[in-house]
């Protein structure tokens, strides 16, 4: 009976299509998404899509990795980081130095990726030491400064980084350091240098990372982060060691950025300080906010939308309008303002955030009814 | 009866204000002790000292003969003291169930990498935590059943939020449970229900120290009552003895009232 009474409210706020979509199970969404992502390069092979789009795909997926990393600190633990791109830079430069003609080193792919991740993690650990006592605005300012310090250091540390010129000629990923002639044939299989190969490499990384982080989110560790985000005092009084948990979150997110940076350096062959501007940090923050803080599918979508959108618009505006970059930030700005006003919880929000962001939600109305019911129950007890 | 908690001359000042002044008392095993006193008499400060949020200027706090004074709150919780807050402090954007699961942090051990890979050991632990949470939430019949466990904590009614805070504190099987005004803001029927639950907790073996203003509840559950005023313990004993103590009456109602009763 109660259900029929609530129907008008439900219909007022949700269209038929939304109801249908809501019934599609979660695993089905994942399967469809992965199928689309995996099928996309086939369109290129079939000649339907230009290779340029495949390149957009690779960079978008690298940014998905970055956003998933930032989501750990921002979405799960509630620490704003405005210098996140610095960890990406640590990973990129480590890879560039370990696998380029700069020092004539060519380490095997896996070793480079692991070392790049570790270097970023160490950087994350060091920056977390002084900053974890800070909160909110102060933390934002310090991380912003950190990002700029790293970038300026890169520009000025010419002997190591070539300064503004960047490191060029980064080798393609190779599984073994120096191939024995006998292995030459086998090795060819393990060289990744075409966009389509990078695409699948990064896609596999995204899927694995999404699974690992979803597990982590629904675990003791993830809940501790969420508790700290919600109420630090209550969290520490429930036995959570705040410093350790926050540090873990910063170090882990830094490691993911370092990993993404390694893939980025390999993929782009050339890296320079321009890739690590403050604006890049802001863009990653936008990706997380747009998709939905704390929501893994949301963050993935946010990164793809914000990375692919400018390309789409550029395409639509015609190749002649090469000055599109100028408007890119303007569009981001408008998008974020619109989102904050109309859908503050993000495109694909975490369930719980979604309930909070809108004041009158039919589900919440139902809950209020239940609370009233509680109250009536209490009154009845009183009468007896 | 062996002492679970013992305060030995604990003092704490905020600037020139002596919030707690050489306070000493004990709480025995399986006992319910209530602290009463007017606003600003140092009750909550005492709780904050015991739970590690403040460090005492002097004196010592012993839990089962082991000093916990000045330990970090998370370590105090590890030792077995868990608490609720006067001003509700739930994890409001987390579900009812998750709030209780967070309460088990100290008594579980799943690590980061194991959790990422969801190893069998982690699954087993999660299952055990889930069962335990059901058991604890089941102590509040009809309040947290079925789908309600997946609702965010902010959607709960006021009384249910208080209940959930108690549930979260119980999740770690504490040696000592600190309840800061467990029935504040509840109607008489609700506070009666909570009172019965507190008694039930004692019967299942918990030791409870609570702050409460509702004298009906204090009378109903306390084995012993401690009255505080201006950071000093002014009376201690059974409810009747403390309630009729002239100093206590004076603290609440002023000198004239105290003289009238005397």
Describe this structure as you would to a colleague.
- The complex is a heterodimer of chains A (384) and B (262).
- Chain A has 384 residues and is mainly α.
- Chain A has a single domain, classed as ABC transporter involved in vitamin B12 uptake, BtuC (Orthogonal Bundle), CATH 1.10.3470.
- Chain A has helices spanning 2-13, 16-23, 26-45, 51-76, 85-98, 109-131, 136-156, 158-161, 184-188, 195-217, 220-230, 232-237, 242-268, 278-291, 296-317, 325-342, 351-357, 362-383, and strands at 99-100, 105-106.
- Chain A has a two-stranded antiparallel ribbon with strand order 1-2.
- Residues 1-13 of chain A have low confidence and may be disordered.
- With 262 residues, chain B is α/β, with parallel strands linked by helices.
- Chain B has a single domain (3-261), classed as P-loop containing nucleotide triphosphate hydrolases (Rossmann fold, 3-Layer(aba) Sandwich).
- Helix content of chain B is 39%, strand content 23%.
- In chain B, the strands form two sheets. A six-stranded mixed sheet of chain B has the order 6-7-8-3-9-10, sandwiched between helices. In chain B, strands 2-1-4-5 form a four-stranded antiparallel sheet, with helices on one face.
- In chain B, a hairpin with a 2-residue loop joins strand 1 and strand 2.
- The longest helix of chain B is centred in the middle third of the chain and has 18 residues, at 120-137.
- Classes of the chains: A mainly alpha (384), B alpha/beta (262).
Q: Could you tell me how far the N terminus lies from the C terminus of chain A, measured between alpha carbons in angstroms? A: 27 Å
Question: Approximately what portion of the residues of chain B adopt beta-strand conformation?
Answer: 15-25%
Average pLDDT of chain B? 92
Strand content of chain A: under 5%
Number of helices of chain B: 11
Spatial extent as radius of gyration of chain A: 24 Å
The average pLDDT of chain A is 84
The helix-and-strand class of chain B reads alpha/beta
- The beta-strand count of chain A equals 2
Largest sheet of chain B: 6 strands, mixed
Residue stretches of chain B low in confidence (pLDDT < 50, at least 5 long) are none
Tell me the CATH superfamily of chain B: P-loop containing nucleotide triphosphate hydrolases
Strand order of the largest sheet of chain A: 1-2
Gross morphology of chain A = globular
Query: Which stretches of chain A of 5+ consecutive residues score pLDDT under 50?
Result: 1-13
What percentage of residues of chain A falls in helices of 4 or more residues? over 70%
The best one-word shape of chain B is globular
As for the CATH topology of chain A, it is: ABC transporter involved in vitamin B12 uptake, BtuC
């Amino acid at each position: 009976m109660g259900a029929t009474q609530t129907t008008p409210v439900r219909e007022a706020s949700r269209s038929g299509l939304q109801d249908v979509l809501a019934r599609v199970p979660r695993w089905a969404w994942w399967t469809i998404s992965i199928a689309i992502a995996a099928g996309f390069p086939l369109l290129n092979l079939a000649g339907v899509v230009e290779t340029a789009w495949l390149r957009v795909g690779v960079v978008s997926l690298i940014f998905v990795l970055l956003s998933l990393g930032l989501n750990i600190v921002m979405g799960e633990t509630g620490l704003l980081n405005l210098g996140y791109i610095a960890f990406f830079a640590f990973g990129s430069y480590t890879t560039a130095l370990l696998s380029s003609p700069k020092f004539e080193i060519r380490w095997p792919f896996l070793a480079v990726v692991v070392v790049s991740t570790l270097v970023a993690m160490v950087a994350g650990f060091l920056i977390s030491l002084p900053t974890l006592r800070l909160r909110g605005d102060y933390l934002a300012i310090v991380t912003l400064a950190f990002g700029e310090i790293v970038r300026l250091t890169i520009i000025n540390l010419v002997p190591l980084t070539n300064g503004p010129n960047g490191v060029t000629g980064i080798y393609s990923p190779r599984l073994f350091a120096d191939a024995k002639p006998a292995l030459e044939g086998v090795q060819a299989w393990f060289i990744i240098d075409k966009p389509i190969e990078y695409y699948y490499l990064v896609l596999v990384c995204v899927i694995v990372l999404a699974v690992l982080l979803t597990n982590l989110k629904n675990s003791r560790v993830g809940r501790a982060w969420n508790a700290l985000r919600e109420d630090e005092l209550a969290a520490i009084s429930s036995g959570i060691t705040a410093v350790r948990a926050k540090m873990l979150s910063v170090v882990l997110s830094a490691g993911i950025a370092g990993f993404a940076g390694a893939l980025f350096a390999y993929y782009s062959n050339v890296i320079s300080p321009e890739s690590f501007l403050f604006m890049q940090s802001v863009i990653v923050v936008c990706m997380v906010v747009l998709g939905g803080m704390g929501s893994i599918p949301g963050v993935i979508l946010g990164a793809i939308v914000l990375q692919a959108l400018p390309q789409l618009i550029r395409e639509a505006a015609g190749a002649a309008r090469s000055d599109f970059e100028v408007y890119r930030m303007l569009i981001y700005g408008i998008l974020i303002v619109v989102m904050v006003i109309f859908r503050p919880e993000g495109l694909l929000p975490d369930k719980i955030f979604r309930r909070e962001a809108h004041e009158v939600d039919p589900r919440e109305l139902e809950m209020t009814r239940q609370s009233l019911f509680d109250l009536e129950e209490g009154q009845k007890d009183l009468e007896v | 009866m062996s002492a679970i908690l013992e305060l030995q001359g604990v003092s704490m000042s905020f600037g020139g204000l002596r919030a707690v002044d050489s306070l000493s008392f004990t709480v025995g095993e399986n006992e319910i002790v209530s602290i009463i006193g007017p606003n600003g008499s140092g009750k909550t400060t005492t709780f904050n000292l015991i739970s590690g949020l403040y460090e005492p200027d002097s004196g010592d706090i012993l839990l089962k003969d082991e000093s916990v004074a000045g330990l970090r709150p998370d370590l105090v919780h590890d030792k077995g003291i868990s608490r609720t807050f006067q001003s509700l402090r739930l994890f409001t954007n987390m579900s009812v169930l998750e709030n209780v699961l967070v309460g088990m942090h100290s008594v579980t051990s799943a690590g980061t990498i194991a959790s990422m890979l969801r190893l069998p050991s982690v699954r087993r632990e999660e299952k055990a935590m889930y069962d335990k949470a059901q058991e604890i939430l089941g102590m509040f019949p009809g309040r947290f059943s079925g789908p309600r466990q997946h609702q965010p904590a902010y959607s709960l009614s006021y009384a249910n939020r208080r209940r959930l805070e108690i549930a979260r504190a119980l999740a770690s099987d504490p040696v000592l449970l600190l309840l800061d005004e467990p029935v504040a803001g509840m109607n008489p029927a609700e506070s009666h229900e909570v009172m019965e639950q507190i008694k039930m907790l004692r019967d299942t073996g918990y030791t409870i120290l609570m702050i409460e203003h509702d004298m009906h509840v204090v009378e109903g559950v306390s084995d012993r009552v401690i009255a505080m005023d201006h950071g000093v313990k002014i009376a201690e004993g059974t409810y009747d003895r403390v309630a009729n103590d002239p100093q206590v009456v004076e603290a609440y109602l002023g000198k004239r009232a105290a003289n009238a009763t005397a």
